[in-house]
Amino acid sequence: MVLTSVGVYVHIPFCERICPYCDFAVVARKSIDAIEEENYVAALLAELEIRAPQFELHHLDTIYFGGGTPSLLRPDLIGRIIESLCSKFGGKPREITLEVNPSTLEIGRLPYFIGAGVNRLSIGVQSFDDLVLKRLGRAHRFSDVEDIIPKARAAGFQNLSLDLIFGAPGQTYESLERDLQLLIEHAPEHVSAYSLTVEKGTPFSKADARGQLLLPAEEESLAMLDLVWGRLVEVGYNHYELSNFAKPGFYSLHNRRYWFRKPVLGLGMGACSFDPKSRKAPYGARPENPRDLASYLDSRLACEDVILSADEAAREAVFLALRTSRGLSIQGFIDEFGQGPEEFFGETSRRLVEAGVLNVGSGEVWSLTPKGRRVADSVFLELL
Ligand code: SF4
Predict the structure, then answer these.
(1) How many other CB atoms are found less than 10 A from the CB of residue 206?
(2) Sheet holding 365-368: strands in order across?
(3) pLDDT per position as a tens digit, 300-325
(4) Which residue, 317, 335, 331, is CA-closest to 365?
(5) Across residues 227-254, what is the average pLDDT?
(6) How many angstroms separate the alpha carbon of residue 53 from the centre of ligand 1?
(7) What kind of fold does domain 4-258 have according to CATH?
(8) Which CATH class is domain 310-383?
(9) What is the pLDDT of residues 32-55, one digit of tens each?
(10) Residue 250: helix, strand or coil by DSSP?
(11) 49 contacts: CB under 8 Å, gap ≥ 6
(12) Going along 68-205, which residue ranges are E strands?
């Protein structure tokens, strides 16, 4: 009897070069040699054998190849991973996403990725402005972006997601306006638009500490956020999560699993899972694999099972659901935690309602108000 579904995240850590703002688990490789990629895939499949029993009775709903740059891996290896996952869990996933970078994808590979079963591409465009791309340390340029999108369409991809960054060093409001215009002309089904964050330990954070990172002032960053959010909604995208926009019917099925805390099996270096609830972990567990390649290939299994307490799980549930336009189901929260969110958060929630950032209006759902969405990070700091 099939009880529920699982999404599988497959991490491919290789990147042509490391961008100076990147905080992901990555390894620089101009190209991967055949032995290294075979070895990595063998490790992934061995990990699958060990971890899959935990997801017994789950059918496979989504697969997401993230990184890193998964399109550096040969299409037949991507196909081998998909086949192994399908035969392990049974069923045909509704969505199989592959992240690609405009510079690293050999265009001739696109039809083979479709042949392997991939039905959605997430393209790391970030900007259409060469100066911004250069300052971000990206390997691709505007001409690469203009090349890959029509070729992805010609290969048969009917579900494209484009990534866009705003608040980048040297980026102006006008350059972002041009980016948006070009992005809209390409009519992707989905857009992920992120404000640049300077992560600790990255070259950007060191440059920032030396005063050498020329980021837009806070007021200008907020104006950029308003521009991106306003313009995408104006042309028909649903703003369904703080950083994500989709045409009707094209929400990311895999990412929704994270926001609504559905089981995810993470395979590969640095991958995180959300294990199904069990007697040992009644509120779920979030194991995380080693973030360096040698340790992953050596030990493969998660460093430790991070078992969530009721308190951690309740805060996480609110934080993740409030990122979405659907918001937090109050009844769902009561069913899981035995009390309503208002009772759980007490004075904090009253303060947030008074500040006009939290909407508890209907009594069925908690959601952020438009004002709350603009200052979401500070609202989450209060709730976590
Ligand atoms: S391409 Fe993406 S994953 Fe790779 S280094 Fe750059 S930001 Fe990180």
Answers:
(1) 14
(2) 328-329, 365-368, 358-359
(3) 665 667 899 999 999 999 999 999 99
(4) 331
(5) 98
(6) 32
(7) TIM Barrel (3.20.20)
(8) mainly alpha
(9) 899 999 999 999 999 999 999 988
(10) coil
(11) none
(12) 95-100, 120-126, 160-166, 190-195
